[in-house]
Amino acid sequence: xxxxxxxxxxxxxxxxxxxxxxxxxxxxxxxxxxxxxxxxxxxxxxxxxxxxxxxxxxxxxxxxxxxxxxxxxxxxxxxxxxxxxxxxxxxxxxxxxxxxxxxxxxxxxxxxxxxxxxxxxxxxxxxxxxxxxxxxxxxxxxxxxxxxxxxxxxxxxxxxxxxxxxxxxxxxxxxxxxxxxxxxxxxxxxxxxxxxxxxxxxxxxxxxxxxxxxxxxxxxxxxxxxxxxxxxxxxxxxxxxxxxxxx
Length: 247
What we know:
5-stranded mixed β-sheet; 2 domains; single chain; about 35% helix; Nucleotidyltransferase, domain 5; 7 helices; globular
């Protein structure tokens, strides 16, 4: 049993894997409240932690107290794909884990991983297993906050709410501009790489993916050779693979 701890900018996801499959999950905060109880319940043999933020003393204390060895994920860690990124020491561990997770599930494919969180990341691994890097763009909440903070009169708008095609007041105009604008951005990225590669598999993941409503029935505009897959466990899957690769 493997313990996977994925700490993002706003929350931490803790998953236990039995082989290649997740069997238990909890979501907590950056202090990792409840981690020791979760570990006692599931008794993992080893673990790995990936974090996008500097951990506080309480989180570090809880990690140090765990009864199993914990590996710290970095962008320079050995992984089962070829990292062509020019500065792996600056590479976000979550980005690398996501492409490893996608490649583990569908090896031998050209893959574009789109992770919609605090930022939106686009990462590309080709059919030969070369990870070339990708792009980073502001996420939904970051865009709404920027409009409020960098203007004189626009309000702070919450992400939850109506998103009509044409906003009928200032909050819906800002929210719709943000959500629909990001949808069109994602569609543009998929269209570009879909024409560049003969076959492309696109993974949509991340905590804010649900706000984009990019299911098949609302289909993303994309070339016919593109297949879109949604997987909320993509980063934990990649971390599990990396842990096995390094054990």
